[in-house]
């Protein structure tokens, strides 16, 4: 029963991950028209670190803010998190959003292979069926462009970068679970965000000093700042925290299946920008959802 409750906690956590990361897709694409990539990543990790720190202080007390991780692991953890944010956003910058979503449905495959290579763990029971359902859902989700949706699909090259960035995030997820002793998932996300901010801030200062990036302080559009800070709180801060919860309870490979909910939620969030979902996108999202629900059902059956 304890194992069943342990698994059930992951369900709402991963729903939030899908919703917040789905919002990240259209917002990040729009924000790249206002901010340069690396300085934008530095702002996001800074906001995430502060938000997680405040939450950690309120929930666990001031002692929880102490970083007990050795410097090498602290630096590597942030390099992986910050590297993922930068690489993923770079892929979005040079992608057609529709084709990026098309390629991204193969993300769980990249994650599963990464887990297999790093840990040697076998796939959980029901994983192949769940993976097939989520991939099918992703395919349906983006197929509307092939039947008269938003025009022909174009390939910008960044789609492959978006796909491969899953391996960086998977590696971070694995290390975030094994490099700490008994730290809470909130503390792990906080430590990683602080380290990621250090890396992205250092790189931002260098790029701005060399004249290769614009200072974010030059952006005076209040709407752009509101969007950036909002998505940093939702996706980079709380999204990372709830991802750690899901990954710790489901395993990284199974949690990665939920990545296929991101395109579905991205469509819903995009309605705020004037885009209306069609039948293919709705059905595709429901099929993808059936995949992760099936995986949950199998895991609950095993836990009994």
UniProtKB/TrEMBL annotation:
Main location: membrane
Gene Ontology CC entries for this record: plasma membrane
Transmembrane region(s): 38-59, 71-92, 98-118, 130-148, 160-178, 190-212, 224-243, 250-273, 279-297
UniProt xrefs under PANTHER family: INNER MEMBRANE TRANSPORTER, S-ADENOSYLMETHIONINE_S-ADENOSYLHOMOCYSTEINE TRANSPORTER
InterPro entries given in the database record: AA-Vitamin_Transporters (IPR050638), EamA_dom (IPR000620), EmrE-like (IPR037185)
Protein name as annotated: EamA domain-containing protein
Keywords: Cell membrane, Membrane, Transmembrane, Transmembrane helix
Bilayer topology annotation: Multi-pass membrane protein
Presence of keyword Transmembrane helix: yes
Domain EamA: 14-141, 158-294
SUPFAM superfamilies membership: Multidrug resistance efflux transporter EmrE
Keyword presence, Transmembrane: yes
Source domain of life: Bacteria
Cellular location(s): Cell membrane
